[in-house]
Amino acid sequence: MRAKREYRDRDQPQVAVLDALADRGEEGMTVLELRSRVDADIDRLEGALADLKEDGLIEVKEDGDRTVILPQDHAVGTYDPGKERGLLDKLREWLP
């Protein structure tokens, strides 16, 4: 799974975080795990996490002795960029 189309126009680190979290939706990821998957320095990653949390796209939970970050269900889905329909595809479907 990946971030839904409506969230793909965000800054690159935010989209990368959502994509990484979508792969591990139920168990979540720690900041260190995200750091290894997202190509951004720690300051940009921290900013991305703050923005995503403020917008209600992720949640932070305590899991025993570690803190994990989980995606909200409405933020991830089955986005496939190869199946993105362009304007011409939409016109072809609309026209008889």
CATH class category: Mainly Alpha
Quaternary structure of the protein? single chain
Outline the biggest β-sheet: 2 strands, antiparallel
Q: What is the mean pLDDT?
A: 85
Shape: elongated
> Looking across the biggest beta sheet, what order are the strands in?
1-4
How many strand units? 4
Annotation field: number of helices: 4
Task: Report the C-alpha radius of gyration, rounded.
Answer: 16 Å
What is the CATH architecture annotation?
Orthogonal Bundle
Structural class: alpha+beta
- The run of helices and strands is EHHHEEEH
Find the CATH topology.
Answer: Arc Repressor Mutant, subunit A
* CATH homologous superfamily heading: Winged helix-like DNA-binding domain superfamily/Winged helix DNA-binding domain
Estimated share of beta-strand residues: 15-25%
